[in-house]
Amino acid sequence: MAPESATREVTTPGDVNVSLTLSLLRRGGADPTFRRVGLVVWRTSRMESGPVTYAIEQLGPRHVRATAWGPGRHELLDGLESLVGARDDSTGFVPSHPVLADGVRRYPGLRVPRTGRVLEALIPAIIEQKVLGIDAFAAQRRLLVRFGEAAPGPAPDEMRVFPTAEQWAAVPSWEWHLAGVDPSRARAAQAAARLAPQLERLAERSGDDHAAVHRGLRSIPGVGVWTSAEVGSRALGDADAVPFGDYHVAKDVGVALLGRPIDDDELAEVLEPWRGHRYRVVRLVGLSPLVRTERRGPRMARVDHRRI
Prior knowledge:
308 residues; two-stranded antiparallel sheet; 44% helix; DNA-3-methyladenine glycosylase 2 family protein; DNA damage
């Protein structure tokens, strides 16, 4: 018997580029919660009502269809507009720099997604703290393969569903070690898992009051501005969530908008005219083919925490 599915189509008020918008949710090329098959984006998630696999197709610039399987399918489809960024309001954003104006023209359907799933964004962000992306993505994959469950429905091979908060909180210390996550990040991730119900309720109650959610996130030991911003731009649809402290963002934005690298203090000044849309600026700069920054010089060292 074929697994039960549900389908929903939505027409958005403005253009939406589903593939580009949802690419923000992918944690490395081998992320077992994300696949792109042709023009279809496949992803898994853990809703309050249970696990879900969904496939999203772009039928037109403003027309999206999603099919979902699993206990969380109806809840996922109810939030489809937010997920694909259709409720991301860019009113007031003025791309007053040539790089930004080019980005708006080049990526007309780029939006900030809002998954509503705080823990799904928070634990990967914690794992990515102060390590190279390639190592963080590998660690996340090991943990998802070890503790995640098989994706419901006709998902592509080897897709997995994000574990429950209780499962994350119960991961033994040696499993974090074997995955390549050091004790400080493991402790922060487990603290976040234990607080997951409160965080999810806070995000739901707060609506567009992102500041309240960021305060709650930053109250967790080991969660700072960068980690909170990484959650904001994915789970909350926060177009103003600047990842201060990122290894490349200040330099890239400085080169793009001023022609020279800058630090975080100057980054705050440079982005101030776009307050409310500062992450939108960061995202456009990151995607722009017009921006070329030197990757020479000191780099973060690779550390295999499995060997420590």
